[in-house]
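lol ok so funny story. i was supposed to be doing the assay writeup but got distracted and ended up predicting the structure for this chain instead. priorities right. anyway since i did it might as well share w the group, maybe its usefull for someone
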Amino acid sequence: MDDYTHIIASQTPLRIGICGAARIARKNIAAIQNLSSNCKVVAIASRSLEKADDFYKNHVLDEWKDSVSIMAGADAYDQLINDSNVDALYIPLPVTVKKEWVVKALHAKKHVLCEKPVSTSAADYRELLTIAKQVGRYIMDGTMFIHNNRTQHFLEYIANSDDFGNVIRIDSEFTFRGDEEFFANDIRTTKDGDPYGCIGDLGWYCVRLAQLVFGKVECGQVTRAQTVYWKLNEEGVPIDAQCLVVFQNRENRDSENQEYVLSFHCSFLHPLSQRLSIIGTKQTLEMVDYVIPREGINFWVVHGEDLTVHDTYSIRSSDVMEVPSGPVQEVLMWRNFSKYCREVENYGWCDGEANQVSITSLENQRIVDALMESISQEGKAVSLL
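and the output, tada:
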């Protein structure tokens, strides 16, 4: 039990209802049931009674089973939304139907944590945020790695220009190789499920990382986005893509010399890879597990490189930077979600951390929208100014 768990032991946990028995909900219900999350599962809803029962039996801890309700049938989601014992909903539903249920949940005075992409357009996402602010409830996307302690540590490291130099470029990759069943049945490959495909599912993380890095060093103004290579399936959903996103210093919008580039590859066709290189003028920071960390010690590696006399050989120096590992990042995400929800309930939406997370998430959606538009325009760069 970490120190925070002792602090929240006397606090009332946020009561969570799970809307749908999607695969990704399995690791999230495990995180919610961790004592450090300051949350508790109180209800599970699925239109399939069989799926709801299976999810309940296999993923609700024995000590919580008596306090968790099961709702099934055509009106299961409505039952969940209108349950007075639920404070917040976790919504891992397909992107194309998500808006309807998020709107209903917000109007029922429920907070919402939903998987990304949050909606089918940034305009729709902006509408959801407007409703959330009107009703005094919070909405957050499920980008988990931003809550990892390591993320905060390496952002502080790259901001130290004396050691790292100035950040000038990010190269990243998030890929996995889907099997036959994945391409036949997974909603991430269907236009009626998630039309963003690999760009929304995997590229979203690459974009968010760049937003955090360039934002940390005050170069977070995105100017344009471009998908330079892509492969679509028979439904027109991206399953492989190489993308560019260009940022600039917010104080030098008119300067052509102040551009900073994110280049990333996302794919359902390649072996699992979650590689990251943040390139500075003095050092390069590398990680091979930046989205889903390896078990054990959290770390990154910093490289410096130079040439010998007459450029005969190259010389590389490398340092492994370790950071303490605490609860898994999904637990930290739910802990922060609980904190943000209580802050909004007590103080309303203000210019704090909760609001900044939402602003960044909306911009994340705007960028992936532009990458999809770039595909529809045969690879042209799409302005975001």
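The chain is about 35% helix and 30% strand. The radius of gyration is 21 Å.
back to the writeup now i swear
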